[in-house]
Specification:
Layout: H1 3-6, E1 9-11, E2 19-23, H2 34-42, E3 46-49, H3 59-63, H4 67-81, E4 88-93, H5 95-106, E5 111-115, H6 129-132, E6 138-140, E7 158-160, H7 161-176, E8 185-190, H8 199-207, E9 213-218, H9 231-246
Parallel strand pairs: 2-3, 2-4, 4-5, 5-8, 8-9
Antiparallel strand pairs: 1-3, 6-7
Helix pairs in contact: 4-5, 5-7
Length: 249
């Protein structure tokens, strides 16, 4: 792993009137959201893009890290940004979307931006993961689903099955609490996504209690859309959405 690309990142003015927390995906790194984070910082928001525990090092470390550690890191970052009552919007990519929704169930989040969020799957093989994890430590990577040539999200090249099993626990907890989500929600979904199927977006949009829930389809990007052909479209729409829901002109 390249420390320059996988390191956590903070930007924007510390005394900004509003803040944004960004959460990367499973086996991924802050590199997948760094351009969007920098765009939000340039727009005047205080921005935090943490490296989730078990990520950005070796996949073996992720195998030893439960989902509760990922969520605890997200919650700590949110609480720091929200000090003094400052409004905080949260952006989540893939599994980071599940963490974002979990935060919205337990904190007063100003708004949610989800990019190809993962909270469930139609893949039948996932039910076998707890058994497989006892004999097979990892499988080939799911990262790098990007249509734009020559771009890397700097994810692991192996997927630890123990961590997949833990992520499924996160999914169950998150889906059970979706009716508690009331914050405005903007969901970007790639029409062609080789990692997350449409069932996650369907469950989220059907189950949240948010009065505002918008699905924005992406036609030129694969799963890691924040680094793909639609990245500028995502950035512009996210900045406008965050400005509105946080009340920052």
């Amino acid at each position: 792993m390249d420390d320059r690309t996988t390191s956590p990142w903070r930007g924007g003015p510390d005394d900004a009137p509003a803040a944004v927390l960004l959460l990367h995906g499973f086996t991924g790194s802050p590199a997948s959201l760094r351009p969007l984070a920098e765009c939000l910082a340039q727009a005047g928001f205080a921005v935090d893009l943490p490296l989730l525990p078990g990520h950005g090092t070796r996949w073996q470390n992720l195998a030893r890290t439960p989902w509760t550690d990922w969520y605890a890191a997200a919650e700590r970052a949110y609480d720091r940004l929200a000090e003094g009552g400052r409004p905080v919007a949260v952006v989540g990519l893939s599994m980071g979307g599940a963490l974002t929704l979990r935060l919205a169930q337990r904190r007063d989040v100003a708004g949610l931006v989800l990019v190809n969020p993962a909270v469930t799957s139609r893949a039948p093989g996932l039910r076998l993961v707890p058994l497989l994890a006892r004999v097979v430590p990892s499988l080939p990577a799911i990262g790098g689903d990007i249509a734009r040539p020559g771009v890397s999200e700097h994810a692991y090249d192996r997927v630890p099955l123990r961590a997949v099993a833990s992520m499924r626990h996160l999914w169950r907890e998150t889906v059970a609490g979706l009716p508690q989500v009331v914050a405005p929600l903007l969901l970007f979904r790639s029409v062609t996504d080789h990692v997350v199927d449409p069932s996650s977006a369907e469950v989220i949009l059907r189950s949240v209690a948010s009065a505002e829930r918008t699905e924005h389809l992406l036609h030129r990007s694969f799963h890691v859309a924040t680094l793909d052909h639609d990245r500028d479209e995502i950035a512009a729409a996210t900045v406008a959405f965050v400005r509105r829901v946080t009340g920052v002109a």
